[in-house]
Amino acid sequence: MKRSQINSAIARAKARMEQYSVSLPMFGYWTPEDWKANKDGIAKIREGMLGWDVTDFGSDDFSHTGAVLFTVRNGDKNDASMSRPYCEKYIVLDDTDEQEIPYHYHILKTEDIINRAGGTLVIQVYHKTEDDKLDTTHPVTVFMDGIYRTFAPGEPIEVTPGNSITLEPGVFHRFTAKKGDGLLIVGEVSKVNDDNCDNVFLNPSKRFSAIDEDEAPIHPLVNEYSNL
Length: 228
Prior knowledge:
By secondary structure, the protein is mostly beta strands. It has helices at 3-19, 32-37, 43-48, and strands spanning 51-55, 67-74, 87-93, 100-106, 111-118, 121-128, 134-135, 140-144, 147-151, 157-159, 164-167, 171-177, 184-190, 199-201. A six-stranded antiparallel beta sheet has the order 1-2-3-13-5-11, with helices on one face. Strands 4, 6, 7, 10, 12 and 14 form a six-stranded antiparallel beta sheet that branches. A hairpin with a 5-residue loop joins strand 6 and strand 7 (134-135). The longest helix has 17 residues, at 3-19. The chain is globular.
């Protein structure tokens, strides 16, 4: 991805959040210079990979495959006491080309995916086979806002603002912003998040994108903190 594309995507996401009165913690607005000025007190931010995360999953087609994410809080996977066994994120998806997060499942993480504001969230789910493919035979039962619901494999599930779906480990899922319904703000509330080890993609994908530095960053990304 080009840095200019990342900057533009973050700026648009911030504008959408402001429209819906979604405020980020202070480090969500820090410039690279602010990060450097505060570098001695942000070990937990670095370790938890809190902050901005823009990816096209290696697709080179961000408008179709990609997302802007912001991790608000995240526990420590190495904390034996599990005193903070949770994570919270925002995910912004563009409806223009039905931007998607491609099929993947988590080995350990259970997550609630919540339509916070904007358009319509569309999710498709499958059980996985033993060789990590889509099980197209068996229906999938998921928990949605206090009610268990059963869907055919790959059946589009529409989640409107205020509603959610719970995704358990080992369930393949893909989600998009329904075309024409508006830019979408998704929330994620989950167990501790580990984006380096806990994502299994159906097709070869890169969780973090290579960047063409065609302009200066407005905000560093969570996988860039070691460079500050």
